[in-house]
Here is the input.
Amino acid sequence: MISYELTLPYSLAPGWLAPYVEGLQKGRAMGRSCTKCGTVSFPPQRRCQCGNPDAKWVRLSGKASIELRTDGSDGAFGLVQFEGAANRAVTRLEGFSPDQSTGQLIVPPTDVPALVLAPSKPRSTS
Here is the structure.
């Protein structure tokens, strides 16, 4: 058998997900709100649970609660519920201590769009 490494340049256009992808690159949560039932999905779904394909883009706060968490050699990840969204998402967790359970979507540390959550900053009492 002959081994040969092949490298191919490849780019993937975001298509209908452009507002979502652009939002992730800026640390913003862009969800889709169904025009029929009002259900908001983040990450966005192409077709709502009610079957309607029509939706409008809405900006969410980016705040989320961690429901399940796993830590491994390649980092920490969580199943999270974003505020204002009906669905859940798996995100990378950055800088969380084991007792922290809420966070905020942030700009990914690389140029690749990704769901990355960091601990919420405590509110000022002054």
Observations:
- The two ends are 70 Å apart (CA to CA).
